[in-house]
Amino acid sequence: MIASLEGKLESLSGDSAVINVGGVGFRVYMPTSTMSTLGSTGKEVKLYTHLHLREDNATLYGFAEAAELELFQTLINVSGLGPKLALAMLSAMNVEKLTMAIATSNADLLTGIPGIGKKMANRLILELKDKIAAGWITTPAAEFAAENIDVLAALTSLGYSASEATHAVVGLPHDQTLSLEEKIKLALGYFGGKYEMAGNFLEQLIAEWYEFQGYFIDSLIYIFDLIFSALFVGLFAYWFKGLKTWMLMSDNYNSGLTTIRIPVL
Hints:
Blueprint: E1 4-12, E2 16-21, E3 24-29, H1 32-35, E4 44-53, E5 58-63, H2 66-75, H3 83-92, H4 95-103, H5 107-110, H6 118-135, H7 149-157, H8 162-170, H9 180-258
Helix pairs in contact: 2-3, 4-6, 7-8, 7-9
């Protein structure tokens, strides 16, 4: 089996790439998340791979992360789910979100993936829920008890993302006496505190903006005062110069009128 490939990126297509390893080009199919990490042609890349063998075909699938490969191999063991559909699932969701959707029985989230209907979503949940809950949900940075899966399901059904729900559940106290309802309330309290902090930050930001706006308006008024003062002085000087010129012309004109030449007889 080909477990990994390391070589030069030779070409890219819509859903695959050709990796040149020692002069041999391997066409590798991969999810969009991996495609986006490859970079430009000629770059050295490494992929974790799965060789899928059929009677008439051998196809190589590649992934940037080992966790993606492991989840891909888990998905294709579900009856009726082939490698192309598993690849589409990993293109639609990252590993964390996909495993969380299965572990929390979120069929609505799964049916949002192209090619996954209600029947397949329920089958994924039925066959993989316990396996994924036991071996996959270890992030972020902490494992939590299996009973909190119900809390995760409740939070995701309320519209919170898998990542948000995980962060909220990780902060729950390890108290076996807490009921499901109490745990959900505590988890919702996490979001309440988070939104309160965001609200305080926004309020402070608005106050600073108004303060800045006040300084800005004062500065504009000062600048306009200077401009108007300069214009007024300029116009006054122009007007005064014109008046002086007019007075000189008027004096010359009046002098010309009053000058009487007496003819000599």
